Amino acid sequence: MSVNYAVLVLNASYEVIHVCNLKRAITLIFKGVAIVEEETDMVLRSPTISIPVPAVIRLLRYVKIPYHRVKFSRKNVLIRDNYICQYCYQKFKIMDLTLDHVIPLSRGGWDGWDNVVTACRSCNNRKGDDTPEEAGMKLLRKPRLPSVVTYLQIIRRLGEEKKEWRRYLFFDHEEENPMEHQQEKYLISST
User: Fold this and answer.
1) Helix or strand or coil: residue 124?
2) CB-based contacts of 159: which residues, under 8 Å, 6+ apart?
3) Strand 116-120 and strand 97-101: pairing?
4) What pLDDT score was predicted for residue 11?
5) Nearest CA to 11 among 63, 51, 88?
6) Which of 24, 28, 53, 114 could form a disulfide with 42 if both were Cys (CB 3.0 to 4.6 A apart)?
7) Are strands 50-59 and 116-120 parallel, antiparallel or unpaired?
8) Residues contacting residue 50 through CB under 8 Å, at least 6 positions apart
9) pLDDT tens digits for the chain (191 residues)?
């Protein structure tokens, strides 16, 4: 199992606020900042402890999130582009993807949402220090800053494959409210 395994992060109010990697999730749990809401069937093992792998964690204190701008990072560019190479239009695993500057840095390009796209290693090498036009390559989509709403929709799309995320991303409308699910954990039998 990779430490890049995605874990859904909820605010104390059960609002989806982030996706973090497994290492970060375990750190938040052990620091007492978050609790596990949903677990996977997988287990992390060490010589002295076994830990169920969390799928969803919830922060214990409410964090006010300023919904202004999505942070520019490799992870967020990959999420924006849905792990699809913007030149050959194929979906890849994270480890097989790179970031490419549409206008190369050596030719006046910049690091930013509107100049960086996801590319597979082969396409990135083929494009090299050229623009897409010079390399005879066409972009799937013009790069741009995603809105927070777009970013949350992308997280929702990632969650389609993760059954543990579904109730928090409103896929299973017929399921109970997540807060009711949490309360059920602490019901005490009177008999």
Assistant:
1) helix
2) 8, 165, 166, 168, 169, 171
3) antiparallel
4) 94
5) 63
6) 53
7) unpaired
8) 43, 44
9) 666 789 999 999 998 888 899 999 999 999 999 999 999 999 999 999 999 999 999 999 999 877 667 889 998 899 889 899 999 999 999 999 999 999 999 999 999 999 999 999 999 999 999 999 999 999 999 999 887 777 777 777 777 778 898 888 876 554 445 455 544 444 444 44
Closest by alpha carbon to 126, among 134, 116, 105? Answer: 134
| Number of neighbouring beta carbons within 10 Å of residue 19 | 20
Q: What is the spatial distance between Cα 17 and Cα 20, in angstroms, rounded to a whole number? A: 10
Token digits for 75?
Answer: 């992870």
Is CATH 3.40.720.10 what the domain over 74-135 is classified as, yes or no?
Answer: no
- For 56, the token pair is 């969803």
Torsion of CA 75, 78, 81, 82, to 10 degrees: -100
Amino acid of residue 133? E
- Helix, strand, coil percentages (3-state) for the chain, rounded to 5, are 30, 25, 45
Domain locations in the chain?
6-67+148-178, 74-135
pTM of the model: 0.60
